[in-house]
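Format notes (please read before filing issues)

Several people have asked whether sequences and structure tokens are stored in separate files. They are not. Every record keeps both together, in the order shown below: the sequence lines, then the token lines. Line labels are part of the format and must not be stripped during preprocessing.
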Amino acid sequence: MYSNRLIFKSSSDDELFYLKDTILVNFNHNRNGVSTSELNGGTCKLYKSVFNQHLSQEKIDYLVDHDICDYLINECSLMEIDSNYSTGLITLAEMNNLSIVNESFKNLDVTVISTAGVRTNASRAGDPASYWEENGEFHFGTINIIVLVNVKLSEYTLMEAFMTATEAKTVALNNLKIPSQYSNGYATGTGTDGLCIFSDIDSDDVVTNAGKHSKLGELIGKCVIESVTKAIGKQVWITNKSQSNALVRLNRYSLDINEFYDELDCDKDCFIRQLQIDMKKQDNVAITTSILNLIDEVENNLIEKDDAYKLACRIKENCNSYPIKSLLEYWIDYFIHRP
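Then the structure lines:
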């Protein structure tokens, strides 16, 4: 086995080890679960372990011409765990950037283990596809989430918990205003996320609901939101502070601004230096966000273009920064005023 280090132990005595490029959770209680992995994916009545693995470039090159399930089985052998009762996720995110969050309430205990990277692969459900599958194709997981629950859940309750966790992941991304890389919308995940949820089938405590109205659903939601948020901050340095930036907000509606700079009637170096100062000021962020919200409303056919344009121009006049105001005029003209 790889040299390992115990870094966490759950209330059900599950042991989380940090291995070479891998996080391994050995279950000390019998667990059922649901997994998106190619190894024992779907629903399963008995799991004994789960792992999340960072893929080195060497492993990526190997997987181009090899079956992923066979690869995962071989990894189980290297870790000396039974591949018949294990499932595993893979990702480009580094394992030292994982986030572990635990929440408890009376009889309930939930642990969420996440890794996340969203800079290049963030997408929104319904975005244009980046590939289609024909005869199989391999893609890397980016946001990987493992949820451990200390009570017993049926198969349908596991699926309900799966839905709650998925929605919570989207909340985490929306709270950080993560943009899709494939459209002008906010990301709801990445194109290759992985999720595993496990319950304790040895427990005498049977819980029948994991939806958003239930306490279990609340704990799952809170843990996933916090864990994914922390993992994103560790892996790609996107935080509430980094997102409080007018330029970051504007980039969600990206366009080629070479024309804008070509027609700029002032010194470009001075313009950019002032822009770097003004882009983090809270009033400029708020004004920028308000105008982008109007662009969203137009994109979704919720407000007529003429009404949105008039209101956006009025909001823009409250901006005291010449660089920000100039950029806002360009965005308003491009995304609202033009036919």
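For reference, the curators noted about this record: Residues 103 and 315 are 42 Å apart (CA to CA). The longest helix spans residues 215-236.
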